[in-house]
Write a structure and sequence with these properties.
The protein is 42% helix and 20% strand. The protein is an alpha/beta fold. It has three domains: 3-86, Winged helix-like DNA-binding domain superfamily/Winged helix DNA-binding domain (Arc Repressor Mutant, subunit A), CATH 1.10.10; 90-161 and 269-303, D-Maltodextrin-Binding Protein, domain 2; 164-265, Periplasmic binding protein-like II (D-Maltodextrin-Binding Protein, domain 2). The strands form two sheets. Strands 3, 4, 5, 6, 7, 8, 9, 10 and 11 form a nine-stranded mixed sheet that branches. The longest helix is centred in the N-terminal third of the chain and has 28 residues, at 59-86. It is elongated. The model has no long low-confidence stretch (mean pLDDT 87). Pfam families: HTH_1, LysR_substrate. Keywords: Activator, DNA-binding, Transcription, Transcription regulation. InterPro entries: LysR_HTH_N (IPR000847), LysR_subst-bd (IPR005119), WH-like_DNA-bd_sf (IPR036388), WH_DNA-bd_sf (IPR036390). This is LysR family transcriptional regulator. It comes from Pedobacter kyungheensis.
Length: 322
């Protein structure tokens, strides 16, 4: 027994004619007739007396039709409830975000969401890409803001914007006075990576055309875990960094931050949710809030090359060792 079969039964009771009921249900008359026959055979009861004109319900058929109407009403109520829940802009939402984006985007995002959805309580967690994917899949968090594509079959990605990478040079760098940065061979062994940020590191290696991270000079005996630390190391002339554009929005001295020539390397930033996530309206509002708070330069069209990470041998090998 299906909801569709019950709809056919109610339509037949209202129209008392197979052709008219089929038209109302937007189905062929033979199709409707077959579904009614299948239902009657399943329950072992004749719902309509086909020998009478117009079509007339049997005694038991009348009770079945009444119950069918009740079930269809309750089905409509469930549908309305689900729609209302999807459009509800209140409650708690657990939001995860990669640490290379969080310090720069979250303050802007929270400020915007206070106006758009004041009744939503955001619980925000910073984590690396692998942890965020696991947390979304298991339900530990509802939404992740991270670089995509993930390549994960059980996750749904909603792209928000493309964030260019920029080079950060120290004042003695040979290209310190140039308008754009072009990767130099002597910079490759100076490239600074972040500890445990395998997705981010994989993108940097791709930009620099480095296959094996072992070719990068190990200069330090401690873990570098933040972009702000990378910046300070560059200022101290201890390396070379490629960092996301949002990480320089609060910088006053920007002369040593160099954009790449077109096509600019970018990372795609998306909301990532499970395939069962239902709060679509809230996700739309969040996406608009992020877009609205971005610097104007990131909203303009430009030639770019999207840098992936999920198919990087470095990323695959690094994660497999965890």
């Amino acid at each position: 027994m299906t909801i569709q079969q019950l709809k056919y039964v109610v339509a037949l009771d209202e129209e008392r004619h197979f052709a008219r009921a089929a038209e109302v249900c937007m189905v062929t008359q033979p199709g409707l007739t077959i579904q009614l026959k299948n239902l009657e055979e399943e329950i072992g009861i004749k719902i309509f007396d086909r020998n009478k004109v117009p079509l007339t319900p049997t005694v038991l058929g009348k009770e079945i039709i009444n119950r069918a109407r009740k079930i269809l009403r309750e089905t409509d109520e469930i549908r309305d409830f689900v729609i209302n829940q999807k459009n509800l802009l209140e409650g708690e939402l657990k939001l995860g975000i990669i640490s290379t984006l969080s310090p720069y985007l979250i303050p802007l995002f929270i400020s915007a969401m206070k106006t758009i959805a004041p009744k939503v309580n955001f619980v925000i967690k910073e984590a690396n890409t692998g942890q965020l994917m696991q947390d979304v899949e298991t339900g530990a968090i509802d939404v992740a803001i991270m670089a995509t594509p993930t390549g994960h079959p059980n996750l749904v990605e909603h792209a928000i914007f493309k964030e260019p990478f920029v080079a950060y040079l120290n004042e003695n760098h040979p290209m310190a006075n140039d308008d754009f940065y072009e990767l130099q061979p002597y910079d490759k062994p100076e490239l600074l990576l972040l500890q445990n940020e395998y997705c981010y590191n994989a993108q940097l290696l791709d930009i620099c055309g480095i296959k094996e991270p072992g070719k990068i000079k190990e200069q330090f005996s401690y873990d570098i875990s933040s972009i702000e630390t990378l910046k300070n190391l560059v200022r101290a002339k201890l390396g070379f960094a490629i960092i996301p554009a949002l990480s320089i929005i609060n910088e006053k001295e920007t002369a040593l931050f160099k954009t790449f020539k077109d096509p600019k390397p970018v990372r795609e930033i998306s909301f990532v949710v499970s395939d069962t996530f239902s709060k679509k309206l809230l996700l739309e509002k969040m996406s608009q809030a992020v877009w609205d708070c971005l610097p104007e330069a990131l909203k303009k069209d430009f030639s770019y090359k999207k840098i992936k990470w999920n198919d990087s041998p470095y990323f695959i090998n690094a994660v497999s060792k965890i």
